[in-house]
């Protein structure tokens, strides 16, 4: 499958750091997403077999849907594409607000990126392709940011050089220790929560599956305050030991999108046992994308 990502998201919580405890200041629900995020009808920077729609087109085609406490972003799952025409209709949205030091709690997640990439950094909170678990959390930066090979985390470090110009932009990644952190295992478990905390001393990422007994109550209940000190050991810890967080990470936007094939998924499509040609698969199998969508109930901002 290609980006098999069926995500039912009761909440997406963003907090601006002000110590380790943050208070709810804003709550974006349903159609609020249409005014607080911008649809980006751009060419996919990673060359996916996708056609990102404007908000007006996406609403008209019901690719973007907002009603009550539901906000859904999906892909066209009915059209067989012409090989010579544009890619599969889908959307990419970017928050109008930018965040520096903050906490984001999502169900399941998104990613963040700054202007003038990679100089303001990129934090991938959920990253994976072709339905292969587990999830990895990855930083992509300008040169001069590396991670120690051993940190206080439960996940496995897969790369220590965060420089986007090295290693084909692999970035510095940490693989989650839980198989239900992505794809079929994630969906089968009913989803889960991702949380990312960014301060000037570290970036940390946590994951809790829906039925995990250790989900912090503030995360689970969308509490009016959250205290990251009580969240236990993160699966990914990116300390500032050899990476000045202030100079490598600027204001970032939250980005949520759905793309197919392209630089990463397309290149590993065959080796991951998905078939011989990712683009043809996307062109010819619209129904494969019925279960590839984002579904948010709310986005709460904490400061
Ligand atoms: C649009 O999508 C929503 C969410 O999937 C669905 O409930 C609704 O029936 C769709 N509307 C139309 C006109 O297809
Ligand atoms: C946050 O949690 C830590 C660890 O339990 C505790 O020491 C601290 O007092 C809490 N902060 C607030 C403001 O409640
Ligand atoms: C980190 O970068 C900031 C911004 O460029 C700079 O002001 C600060 O002195 C740097 N810190 C260290 C320890 O080099
Ligand atoms: C979102 O877009 C980025 C490129 O800007 C891509 O690397 C990533 O895989 C996309 N995410 C999804 C879930 O399609």
From TrEMBL:
Coiled coil: none
Segment forming the signal sequence: 1-19
Molecular-function annotations in GO: hydrolase activity, hydrolyzing O-glycosyl compounds
One of the protein's GO biological processes: glucan catabolic process
Alphabetical UniProt keywords: Signal
Occurrences of domain GH16 (ranges): 15-273
InterPro entries recorded: Beta-glucanase-like, ConA-like_dom_sf, Glycosyl_Hydrlase_16
UniProt keyword annotation of Iron-sulfur present: no
Top-level taxonomic group: Eukaryota
SUPFAM superfamilies assigned to the protein according to its UniProt record, in alphabetical order: Concanavalin A-like lectins/glucanases (SSF49899)
Record-linked PANTHER family: GLYCOSIDASE C21B10.07-RELATED, GLYCOSYL HYDROLASE-RELATED
Listed name of the protein: GH16 domain-containing protein
